[in-house]
Amino acid sequence: MKWFLLFVITLGLGLAQPNSTYNHFRLPTALRPQKYDLRVLTRLENPEELRFSGTVKIVIEALQNTKNITLHSRDLAFNESQITLRQISGEKKTDNCVTSTVVNPTHDFYILNTCEELLAGHVYELRLIFSAELNRQPEGYYRSSYVDPAENETRWISITQFEPASARLAFPCFDEPGYKAPFVIALGYHKNFTGLSNMPVKETKPHEYLADYVWTEFQESLPMSTYLVAYSVNDFSHKVSTLTNGSVFRTWARPNAIDQCDYAAEFGPKVLQYYEQLFGIEFPLSKIDQIAVPDFNAGAMENWGLVTYRETALLYSDAFSSLEDKQHLSNVVAHELAHQWFGNLVTMKWWTDLWLNEGFATYVASLGVESIHPEWRSKQLESLSNLLTIFRKDSLESSHPISRPIEMVSQVFESFDVISYEKGSSVLRMMHLFLGDEAFRSGLKSYLERFAYKNAEQDDLWESLTQAAHKTGALAKNFDIKTIMDSWTLQTGYPVITVTRDYTDRIAKLSQERYLLNTDISRVHRRECWWVPLSYTTQAEKDFNNTAPKAWMECSQTGESLPKTIQDLPDTDQWVIFNNQLSSPYKVNYDAQNWKLLIETLNSEEFQTIHVVNRAQLIDDVLYFAWTGEQDYEIALRVIDYLQRERHLLPWKSALEHLTLLGRIVRPTPNFQSFKRFIKKLITPIYEDLNGINDTYKPIQAQDEILLRTTVATWACNYQVSDCVPQALAYFRSWRSETNPDEKNPVPIDVRSTVYCAAIKHGSDEDWEFLYERYLKSNVASEKLTIIDGLACSREVWLLQRSLEMIFDPKEVIRKHDSAWAFKAVAYNEVGFLLAKKYFMENVNSIYQFYYPLSKTMSRLLPPLYDQVSTRGEYNEFKEFVANSQESLKGMDQAIQQTLEIMLTNVQWRERNYHKFTRAINQLL
Ligand code: BES
Ligand code: ZN
């Protein structure tokens, strides 16, 4: 083939013109990759020219006859004169060739028209040569940097982030999760660096002509999807841990942060071995690396054998990280390692079932962390947090089912949301609890074994679980998992169960409907039905530990809810509570008498006889019902008034999440005074009981009490409870008077965020500069975030504006990956909100460019805006802004819809509840 096409960028420049008749976003199914051989040379010496070049040989099997090879590729330049294609199966190997190439930029296709038709049943080898700049945005094969403090010089490294659809930026490939193949990877780089990839090194040898360069070839991988491929060239240090089976587990970080790797190097191997035993399946690779990447868009990524993290999710410092930081990082590590089975070994067929990856990793991580650190009691907290999150997000009309059809690539990105993660995890927990441990685990084991190195969809999971459940007797033969679970994964939303008791007949009648936050939407005639496991207990029994369903709410063949009656309930002087330990994601409303009984118990010495998770449930439910008008605020506030006695984190968490939202709405109104007094009344007893933010007396033993104290401290200082602010200022002053404040910080770690915030809020410009200086000097990523939060507590407009401008400054004093965090910090400040909203609306186009093409990242700026817009005027203004900014909000459709809906529900609250709410508060003062 004598083609004179040279270096053609697949953006549609040069001869490769977009002109395809095939215009579907999925790859055609005529071909399947059997193996990739990928060689990538990375050049990191010249910061002006950070580039890579590569060769990929793909062995391709033809399943149908075809005259073209359609691959994914984006922003790669090809050396088209050197494309080769030959048939490698059959009697004699024959050369084929490529007549022309076509680029389809809409779907990132690179289409090679072949000289001869490729024939079904035959195998071909295609070789392509390509190159590109190391990406400046954190996706594909990209650059990251850190400053070496010894030399005060910037050091560059390279790293990949391919999920969900960015392998195509690094090499041409069949970039869909269903196309699994083994990879042989070789990295070329300067010998002063280290090359890492999914697999252990096979051999390293000198580069054929580049002086001081080497090629490192890695062992052939197991069959895997393209999004799990990873490699990095870096000059990092590492810590080695060894697993009991002899595999090597290494933890990598920039040299100056290597002493922050100890905890992850100990926790990672422990949790990996726990999973081996939990699933009964060994980790199949002989090495695994985890690496802390200075610039990282997500939290972490589960690449098989080379797991990548942002620094806050892997690095831990005894002196600078809080318990919350430690728990966060444990959870992230446990999550990514759970993916080594759920996601890497068994992968979803298509992004529709992303929840099979993310829901599982989320749920299994909570089991992993619980087993390694039972003293944290984090499983309970985690499952409650997940439920609280989905009760909010999934009550929106604009939510979507767990398993959702994908119609374009932007929806793949959007699917990494609370529905796949938190709701996915919650329905898995529900199954675990209604099936019991034996059936659940044996079902999972057979699912993992059956689909190992292959792809699966949710029906495959249902089938394995049904078989296991029938075998162990966990589920009656006339029930199957698919019928039950499809109602949770294919329908949007969750139900509210209304329990109406008849105290004379000692029965309760139950009905269900979808719970919707938006009260403009009618809830009747929606014909939605969920299979709801009904566990319950009574005031006499108090058997909250039994989470097995005593009955089910069922659906008819045509999908209608069947009414349900529960018999043998107590009479009029005893409450009942449904959904023991919130084992399933539904809300429960009761008749007035039952609520009355519950309120009596909560407000008595007996309140602890209600399980702590159910106390959190009652609070969350009743506050929602008050919001949407099914309950009076008098009742709701009487429920939470009992918190004055409560000393457990979970009910507080549940209540404070609501009070945060309500507080943000009433903050700019004349009645905020009453709200403040109410908060003081609730918080004062517990603040004093926990000895405030003073850590010199009564060391706290229980770990979850530390989290409670952190939370209570934040509220206490925000609402000027007791001595919180003066104490905080004293701590800050003593920090300021240290000779070396970067090394010695007298502020107790777990209240640092509270102390910094109070000090900046009530402090001087010099205090701000002092803290900013600490930000610049800090070597610990999580400490930097705490400081960003603190700096944003200023009430000086100019300082807040300075922060806003710094966030989007290309110089990146604040790294781009922390920009949304920093924006949120400013925008949740009552003074900062108006500035931030204005900044966002006036600069939406440049913000779009700042993140482009990662529009999903830009949508992280929205929560502080939607949480604080609550008047019709502001809502209309934002709606108009959206209509006029379509170009700059591209790829954020789902986030924008949710934003508008949440704003609208705030407006509804303000119009309907504002006065009722204040009246109810005043009654309790
Ligand atoms: N697979 C994801 C990483 C990811 C997220 C890739 C979004 C592409 C888009 C990873 O397993 C993950 O879920 N990471 C979480 C952290 C986790 C502990 C919830 C993340 O990045 O937030
Ligand atoms: Zn994940």
Overall description:
The protein is 39% helix and 20% strand. The protein is an alpha+beta fold and 925 residues long. It has five domains: 232 residues, Immunoglobulin-like; 107 residues, Neutral Protease Domain 2 (Neutral Protease, domain 2), CATH 1.10.390.10; 141 residues, Neutral Protease, domain 2, CATH 1.10.390.10; 103 residues, Immunoglobulin-like; 98 residues. The strands form eight sheets. Strands 1, 2, 3, 5, 6, 7, 10, 13, 15 and 16 form a ten-stranded mixed β-sheet that branches. The protein has a five-stranded mixed β-sheet with strand order 18-19-20-22-21, covered by helices on one side. Strands 11-12-17-14 form a four-stranded antiparallel β-sheet, with no helix packed on it. The radius of gyration is 29 Å and the shape is globular. The termini are far apart. The N terminus is likely disordered. The structure holds ligand BES and zinc ion (ZN). Ligand BES binds next to strand 21, helix 2 and helix 3. The site of zinc ion has 4 residues, from helix 2 and helix 3.
